[in-house]
């Protein structure tokens, strides 16, 4: 940019340039706003709706959340209780919990909307409502300009997108536009009396819809190209939950309903009496194609991220069938510096493996993001505490954390604790660090470090968890070599970025890993062995 005289000029800095703009005042937007505000950063949240949590005013369509709200857990430890509370945000106010809003195990979505509104009000968060983002552009100084529906421009050095997945993930099938989408289809079962209904999708929204029609629809077929995956088997809470499996009972007990495995080739509305003709290729019958007839077709195939609001020069790269922005271990766009993501969009890092797509998972990832932003942009190192670098002291710290932490419990295998051992033997303990980010940051610094995570074993989803003839157990193993199928602590030692050794703490029915002989002593031995193998300071 040059002046009339030809002299280069510096782009003017608008007076309202913020440190951060946050798009979306759902659970993630409110969580990061509270953390940014507590840290003293300049921020603003732009929300298209008139209240926080706009998404939950509509979804789930049948209003029952599948996020657990277990109020009574036999303990007054707030950290342990958060393991069973899947809806509360992290807060310095111990009373600002979702469990105060409902006692239902699967609560109503309207209760979550009320909770989010109270959360925003309690902290007086800077949220601008009725402000729909229409365009995101890059500033010449590397920041961002966000233009809303009124033409007002908002400026920030960095942008945090917390919109969630807002566009229907409609499959590319000829004629699919004539079908009903999950987001708008009637939820009144009376509208489906005596009808033949095809539901596309095999996830919770599809089976939730099917269950709603069991009493009125004549025939219900649930169809998709992939097998149904049950959460109790995979441990991924986004797979089909038990609360939505009544339909499967009707299929297996020959009540006219069915699960169809295969691909819909076309949807044609215009047959007899306006019925649908659906061409379907059955995967279990060598792609045999058959024409099926229905009164209604309902598309329940999930949602995707809307990247259309970004200018080409700052549009994030998309992955997973273009449903998510590609993220670095720091939850930053891999191709747009300064563009961060919070909330369910963070699940790109652990897609269908952990809990990053849900409040009880991403609340910890969002808190980790706040520490990452402080480290990167505000010269504030990750909070840590120092420990003697002795095996017993380190083992004591690990045992205390794995027996209480909610973050490690919820974000299994994704977020862990980090112990960094200095050259002089002093140790520093950092809590709740994304494991991939820990490896990335430590690889630059070198030296020794240990990661502490809770994890399921590699074959945990390969066996029927209720079949006692095949269930493996490590209840009696004390040497740390058995990678149990069930959730258990895993401690890994890395030296200069390379894995040196792994210790698996013995699984336990009550998830209490503090037995002196079974848990603590083997961990002390492992740490002593690994610390003894460290090169001396003179040899470094």
Overview of the structural elements:
The chain is 21% helix and 24% strand. It has 540 residues and is α/β, with parallel strands linked by helices. Strands 1, 2, 3, 4, 5, 6 and 18 form a seven-stranded mixed beta sheet that branches. A seven-stranded mixed beta sheet has the order 8-14-9-10-11-12-13. Strands 19-21-20-22-23-24 form a six-stranded antiparallel beta sheet. Strand 12 and strand 13 (288-294) form a beta hairpin. Helix 1 packs parallel to helix 7 (359-377) and helix 8 crosses helix 11. The longest helix is centred in the last third of the chain and has 19 residues, at 359-377. The protein is globular and about 85 Å long. The model is unreliable at 1-12 (pLDDT under 50).
Could you give a short description of this structure?
The protein has 540 residues and is α/β, with parallel strands linked by helices. The protein is 21% helix and 24% strand.
List the main descriptive attributes of the protein structure presented here.
540 residues, alpha/beta, FAD/NAD(P)-binding domain, seven-stranded mixed sheet, 24 strands, 24% strand, globular, disordered N terminus, FAD/NAD-bd_sf, Pyridine nucleotide-disulfide oxidoreductase, monooxygenase activity
Mean pLDDT level: 91
Number of helical regions: 11
Tell me the distance between the termini: 50 Å
User: Which structural category fits the helices and strands?
Assistant: alpha/beta
State the domain count: 3
Question: Oligomeric state of the chains?
Answer: single chain
| Approximate strand percentage | 15-25%
Q: Which architecture name of the largest domain does CATH use?
A: 3-Layer(bba) Sandwich
**Looking at the structure, what is the overall shape?**
globular
Query: In total, how many beta strands?
Result: 24
The major sheet is characterized as: 7 strands, mixed
Question: What Rg, in angstroms, do the CA atoms define?
Answer: 26 Å
Q: What's the CATH H-level superfamily name of the largest domain?
A: FAD/NAD(P)-binding domain
Proportion of helical residues:
10-25%
**Under CATH, the topology of the largest domain is which?**
FAD/NAD(P)-binding domain
Keywords: Oxidoreductase
Pfam families: Pyr_redox_3 (PF13738)
GO molecular function: flavin adenine dinucleotide binding; monooxygenase activity
Protein name: Pyridine nucleotide-disulfide oxidoreductase
